[in-house]
Write the structure tokens for this entry.
Amino acid sequence: MAPNIDHYNRRISYLRVSVTDRCNLRCIYCLPVKDLKLLDHAEILSYEEILDVIIAGTECGIRKVRLTGGEPLVRRNFVRFVASVCRIPELEDVSITTNGVLLKERAKEIFDAGVHRINISLDTLNRLKYAKITGYNCFDEVWEGLQEAEVVGFSPIKINVVAIRGVNDDEFHQLAELSVKKPYHVRFIEYMSIGHDSKWKHEKYISSDEIKSKLEAIGPLHKIQRATHDGPAERYRFESAKGEIGFISALSHHFCPSCNRMRLTADGKLRPCLFADNEVDAKTPLRNKCTQQDLKELFREAIARKPRQHHVRMPDGGECLRPMYAIGG
Ligand code: SAM
């Protein structure tokens, strides 16, 4: 059996790498209610260690990497690291997820380093609301970062919107309309309960079906066929729109049967499923000078631990120990 096929015949080819647990925002749905526990610097994998894990992953069939966090752009020398990842010949796709706050200054360097696909998180177009959701008054920085990403040539530019009732459901039309005149992919993400003290409540959750029917008031949404490297988003387009609408429905429509993902946390754990805490520690072996072969074995172990599906069910939402910022979104 190929090293990246799991017990349920899924081919694991996508690694999401968190380069830090630090973030320059404090989003209400991402950070814990109580004390924020950040990792000591020594707990975080060095770039060299991360590269070793990625290379072992490529030897086990990883072909796609997304760099995330925390906020990846806050880590020092991130662009140099991006360039090293982009030089790994086996990788067919390297992308970044960012909140966009620092993007205006870094977009060109990141693009020149070899990353051309970017996801920018933006839940609202209203400055005041942005500050309420994220704790910081920096909507303009993000908006300018988004424009700069377009100017330097990122494609696609995906805008991630976490849909939360009573928070941004009054703006779904405006957000979706960004995809009409611009080539943006606006993706609505179902609000998930992540971390044992998350603020998730059933009343705040909105299913993708409900969002979709709200958006159909703008005009019909035409389904787009899935492409090879597609993630879990169901893709649609408004008539003659330049961009797309996506729905990521981790709760209402499990995409577990087609899940191809593995995660590497900033503290060096291979996490087989977003919602499962059965991680495999790669940091201790790395610091004990393990071989590339050992790292490949750890990858295989993590792939073997992938659950058939996550256990999160409505209406309780489920939970796992780590919050999103500590896993890598
Ligand atoms: N700082 C970067 C950013 O903001 O895009 C990357 C990390 S962030 C944890 C990655 C993504 O996870 C963001 O799009 C964020 O909105 C999403 N996210 C965080 N908590 C979430 C939750 N409880 N439910 C759904 N999405 C969540």
Remarks:
- The mean pLDDT is 93.
- The chain has one domain: 14-326.
- Residues 14-326 form a domain with the TIM Barrel fold (CATH 3.20.20.70).
